[in-house]
Write a structure and sequence with these properties.
alpha+beta; FAD/NAD(P)-binding domain; six-stranded antiparallel β-sheet; 4 domains; Elongation Factor Tu (Ef-tu), domain 3; 622 residues; Arc Repressor Mutant, subunit A
Length: 622
């Protein structure tokens, strides 16, 4: 008989690992229940973390005391900062990772936490008393009791794998699916749906001709995800890029009649922004080629991930079509790509804490909520773990607002708007993305994490040092002058207007052609006051440059955020009967009753609720 736990986490993917780690760090006794101890933190799809908007989420997770950034740095084989040609709101870190090392680092991180126990078994059902969760049942016939439960089942809930006309149950390649939980939840009144995702073939890198591909190297001076000063890479493995062609497309079309995507076998919705290769050539018939990213799986393996070639076509069609891609003429396949359908639960059935509305102390995180992506899942796991711990200890909920974090945007979108297709985070989803940059995630979130006990004093001291150094640098730039004799040679080199008189350095840093490195070269007085080998100084220099260059934009966005916060401060009584408010539109009554928004701000973001409906609500509440 297993002991009773404070928090039981079902599933050990990215969401489950973050949930278990967070709750245990806060002091809860945690059981991590997984079907396979050997696949903890398995990178089921591509061996990479971060990217546009996703990289911002990983940095936010790290700033809050989560493990994804640290583990990503420890297992990285390449680092790139994407979108550097655009504004800083778009800069997005990304690592290519060693798949096996990533899983090992996560497991070791969890094993170092004495509050985490492990149990290998399948969760087959829930134990509910009244309207509260009190434990879970396993396939071995064991009942495990706990004060709260976090479900992070990924693609395993009644998972069905498709390869051509073949179908078989599974939650991932060579792993069985999970049964029983969906049926239990439906019996308690939950509404479920089906979604689809897919993965490309894996091939033998020794069989590829890289001379026919474009090389994609990592950054010359690579950075890191974590604010804990993990060691940057001193060597990196390149990725490569190649392209499909008309022959590839023609060969793929020969299998369309056996494609589960087109013959009706797959009835669920797949990710809009990560379509299969057959979907791409069908939807974009005018395109004569599509990009393929050739991504190594690790330091010491020859396995290659064929990013951009996700497919569920018959395996022989997959191989023939790949052989028509430059560099893949003699490719040997390790395993074919496949599609997988799985159960999810529309997230409008959750509170902002990710606790379910129907059953107290039961939390959902990750793909069970209709999201796609490691980063989206990990962030939900982190928040669910935090809130599970706080709820059972009678502490206030920990909720991030839309102007505080991409994580806040993600959860608010899910809870308020729901999703009928796999939800993926983009920078365009955040209305305050200039405030939510990857470089200031620690400044935004580490003080909040420290206040709830998730990060230690040392991390908060590092943030305070970064803030003070940033302010010091800005002050110096505003006080130190530079003459034309020192500045004009550099300004001419950068094709920027020359000086005719002495000016403050602060007036030059705002010029788009100039970077902080140019300002340092212009002034011996300024450069001598900097310890440019100090990590805190390097970070502060970046912060100071961004804050000064984009000061007007940042201030304008902060004003908009403050206006929004006024609506967030207006609480809606949870006893309100929307159907009795005569002036509300019929659609507003229906949507508001379904979502049960907590604030006027949340109500205003519900699709179908008009500004006039909000005015009626405000009058009714007042």
């Amino acid at each position: 008989m297993l002991k009773s736990y404070d928090v039981i986490v079902v599933g050990a993917g990215h969401a489950g690992c973050e949930a278990a780690n967070a709750a245990a760090k806060l002091g809860s006794s945690v059981l991590l229940l997984t079907m396979n101890m050997n696949t903890i933190a398995q990178m089921s799809c591509n061996p990479a973390m971060g990217g546009v908007a996703k990289g911002q989420i990983v940095r936010e997770i790290d700033a809050l005391g989560g493990g994804s950034g640290y583990v990503s740095d420890r297992s990285a084989i390449q680092f790139r900062m994407l979108n550097l040609s655009k504004g800083p709101a778009m800069w997005s870190p990304r690592t290519q990772n060693d798949r096996m090392l990533f899983a090992e680092e996560w497991r070791l991180l969890l094993e170092r936490n004495p509050n985490v126990d492990f149990w290998q078994d399948m969760c087959s059902g829930l134990i509910v008393e009244g309207d509260s969760i009190v434990g879970v049942k396993t396939s071995l016939g064991i009942s495990i009791y706990g004060k709260s439960v976090v479900l992070t089942n990924g693609t395993f809930l009644n998972g069905l794998i498709h390869i051509g006309e073949k179908q078989f149950g599974g939650g991932r390649a060579a792993e069985r699916n999970s049964t029983g939980i969906t049926e239990d939840l439906i019996s308690y009144g939950f509404v479920s749906g089906r979604m689809k995702t897919g993965t490309p073939p894996r091939v033998d890198g020794r069989s590829l001709d890289y001379s026919k591909m474009e090389v994609q190297d990592g950054d010359f001076n690579p950075s890191t995800f974590s604010f804990m000063h993990t060691k940057p890479l001193d060597k990196q493995i390149p990725c490569h890029i190649t392209y499909t062609n008309e022959e590839t497309h023609d060969l793929l079309r020969t299998g369309f009649d056996r494609s589960p995507m087109f013959n009706g076998a797959i009835k669920s919705t797949g990710p809009r922004y990560c379509p299969s290769i057959e979907d791409k050539i069908n939807r974009f018939a005018d395109r004569d080629r599509h990009q393929i990213f050739v991504e190594p799986e690790g330091w010491n393996t020859v396995e290659i991930y064929v990013n951009g070639f996700s497919t569920s076509l018959p395996e022989e069609v997959q191989l023939k079509a790949m052989h028509a891609i430059p560099g893949f003429e003699h490719a040997k396949m390790f395993r074919p790509g496949y599609a997988i359908e799985y159960d999810y639960f529309p997230p409008t059935q959750l509170k902002h804490t990710l606790e379910t509305k129907l059953i107290h102390n039961l939390y959902f995180a990750g793909q069970i909520n209709g999201t796609t992506g490691y980063e989206e899942a990990a962030s939900q796991g982190l928040m669910a773990g935090i809130n599970a711990h706080r709820k059972i200890n009678d502490l206030s909920p920990f909720i991030l607002k839309r102007n505080e974090a991409y994580i806040g945007v993600l959860i608010d979108d899910l809870i308020t708007k729901g999703t009928i297709e796999p939800y993926r985070m983009f920078t365009s989803r955040a209305e305050f993305r200039i405030l939510l940059r990857q470089d200031n995630a620690d400044v935004r979130l580490t003080p909040l994490a420290h206040a709830i006990g998730l990060v230690d004093n040392e991390r908060l001291d590092n943030v305070d040092l970064k803030i003070s150094k940033t302010n010091e640098i800005i002050s110096k730039l505003k006080s130190i002058g530079v003459t034309p004799d020192f500045a004009n040679s550099i300004l001419q080199e950068k094709d920027s207007t020359l000086l005719t008189q002495q000016v403050k350095l602060s007036s030059l840093i705002t010029r788009p052609q100039l970077q902080m490195s140019d300002i340092i070269r212009m002034s011996d007085d300024f450069s001598m006051q900097l310890d440019q080998d100090n990590i805190a100084t390097i970070s502060a220099l970046e912060q100071a440059e961004i804050l000064m260059k984009y000061e007007g934009y940042i201030e304008r966005e902060q004003e908009q955020a403050n206006k929004m916060l006024k609506l967030e401060d207006v609480k809606i009584p949870q006893t309100i009967n929307y159907s009795s408010i005569k002036s509300l539109s019929l659609e507003a009554k229906e949507k508001l009753s379904k979502v049960s928004p907590v604030t006027i701000g949340q109500a205003a973001r519900i699709s179908g609720v008009s500004p006039s409906d909000i005015s009626v609500l405000l009058i009714h509440i007042n």
